[in-house]
Amino acid sequence: MGKKVVVVGAGIGGLSAAIRLQHAGYSVEIYEKQSIPGGKMHQIREQGFTFDVGPTIVMMPSIYQDIFRLCGRDPDDYIPMTRLDPMYEVFFEGDPIRHYTIGNNLPDLMRMVEAKGPRNAKGFLDYLSEMYTRYQVAYQHFITRPFRHRRDIYNPYMLVQAMKLKTFGSADRMMAKFMPDKDLQRMLSFQTLYIGVSPTNGPSLYNIIPMIELLYGIWCIKGGMHTMAEQMARLFEEIGGKIHYNAQVRKIVATDGRVQGIQVDDRLIESPYVVCNADFPYAMKELVESPRIRGKYSPKKIDSMDYSCSCLVFYWGVKGTYDHLSTHNFVISSQYDDNLRSIFDGSEIEHPSIYLHIPTQTDPSMAPQGQSAFYALLPISELGTAKYSWNEQTVKLYRDKVLQALTRLPGLENLKESIVFERVFTPEDFKQEFNAYRGATFGLQPTLLQSNHWRPQAKAKHCEGLYFTGSSTHPGAGVPIVMQSGKICAEELRRDEKGDSFE
Ligand SMILES: Cc1cc2nc3c(=O)[nH]c(=O)nc-3n(C[C@H](O)[C@H](O)[C@H](O)COP(=O)(O)OP(=O)(O)OC[C@H]3O[C@@H](n4cnc5c(N)ncnc54)[C@H](O)[C@@H]3O)c2cc1C
Fold first, then answer.
1. Does 157 fall in a domain?
2. Burial (Cβ within 10 Å: 0-12, 13-18, ≥19) of residue 64
3. Roughly how many angstroms between the first and final C-alpha of the chain, as a whole number?
4. pLDDT digits over 10-46, tens only?
5. Whole domain around residue 343: which residue ranges?
6. Whose CA is nearest to atom 10 of ligand 1?
7. What is the DSSP pairing of strand 371-380 with strand 310-319?
8. Are residues 188 and 251 in the same domain?
9. Looking at the structure, do residues 401 and 422 belong to the same domain, yes or no?
10. Residue 430 sits in the same domain as residue 310
11. Which residue CA neighbors atom 49 of ligand 1 most closely?
12. In the chain, how many domains are there?
């Protein structure tokens, strides 16, 4: 049997690292506080309805599939996927509502942008070309590698690559340079919110997200996104790994700068290697006790860092079907700038923008016959920024606002009366359930100074045998990117065992 590795957390990062290490010959056991795998990729199954709690949009499908291929499996036997076309509907509030259907068929897109005039059409193509170039650099030189040493970034070659990323300038200012039309600018920059960053001050590099959607498509997995977590757990167990559910890790135990294992309840589980998938800032504050091992990530430093926004999500079982809507629908607030400002300054949101996901449009088995599953998400302040607290009144206030906005859409006038099942996740729930620090659902915000070599890395700096993976570590948030973090984490551990020459 190979050397033992224990993994704290069966989120996507933990599963990705665990499968790779088990496959490479280690003997891996995961300790997860929840009763099912996936972390934020959780699932609610009640009264015949199935909801994904967190992620819903599949981008970069090959990254999802690669882990199954690595283990000699056909991904279609585990996570059958279909490409969505159209990808989504965008509704701009106003009188009248402006409605766009966004596909990723180039002739249709050109018709849409040419209708806005030649400057917008040319700007759209320039935007795609510019972001494609930056994406190639980001993927080859930043997303797929660790920054273990200062020399990994501070060398002439990498500094030139970093310049090519052109990280300066905000996402929406960059779009304004390409396209004068405000609707187009917003339709191609709100996606920074997918990783909890405001388009008004998030680095323009994150405009690669809509480019990836447009050029590579968005996909869905049969049974919803949680299927990915379930099937990764299945694969992990098939290749000999073990998962302990309902097992809350209390401490990462280390002495003399070397990890000894983890403490679960009052038991010490000894292991020469520990991979921590619990959110990095939470883990540094709550699981690691020694100031020497924390290094620069003291509790004070953790509190002074920038966090992504959080999410408020309503899960509704709804009577009827809604064929005029897509699987993914975005309602952009008539007071969009104010909406963004409030999310990031913590004031109460007057007019929220809403993401309405209806998984039953592609997979009717996720609701009883003739009914639909609705998932309505508001990007909202994380707990450290919010100037209000979460209680029944806060939930009611936002529920009313969401219903008010959605019932203005054609065909949803009777939504309120059609709800037959309801659950809600607030930022407090994301904190309680998954230990997401400050309920920030996408972890540390990927500001310039919290990205790449400045972001927490896979290998702990001051503790041998301890590694991190997950959205607050490099390369960042979003399912495929976190899968990548799990890959880097496994590679870093193997690299240490083999000496610094691995790959
Ligand atoms: C509402 C929402 C919508 C999203 N939408 C998308 C989307 O459409 N597409 C996309 O790609 N991404 C999306 N994301 C982001 C994506 O879900 C995350 O980036 C990713 O799932 C994070 O994975 P992780 O492994 O870093 O963390 P987590 O999922 O948080 O995993 C950490 C795991 O550790 C466990 N844990 C924590 N502490 C302990 C402890 N002490 N002991 C034992 N176990 C512990 C937790 O229970 C959890 O299972 C969304 C996220 C949210 C919340």
1. yes
2. buried
3. 24
4. 999 999 999 999 999 999 999 999 999 999 999 999 9
5. 306-434
6. 478
7. antiparallel
8. no
9. yes
10. yes
11. 39
12. 3
